Amino acid sequence: MLFHVEMTVNLPHDLDGAIADALKAKEKAMCQDLQRSGKWVNIWRIVGKYANVSLFNVESPAELHEILTNLPLFPFMQIEVKALCRHYSSIKEGEI
Ligand SMILES: O=C(O)CC1=CCC(=O)O1
To answer: ipTM value of the model?
Structure first.
């Protein structure tokens, strides 16, 4: 199942810089592991915002929920999820 996910990060202004850097490093490692697994298809920065748009390809909404809630930055993110399916005008064979 494909999901469009928009994540907006709101780190507290008084969060210790070293803690913020550690959270971002863990987030990056998890994101890249999930990309290698094929579950996190890609991630794009939204220009001018501390936010991203990502495409996930997972088995179920429950699996996506598990992934998102385990992200190190999850406590500091506003997340919006949209389920996607094939459009009849797409010239691609598969879902992606
Ligand atoms: O910087 C962001 O948009 C938050 C984020 C999600 C995965 C990642 O590596 O960074």
So the answer is: 0.97
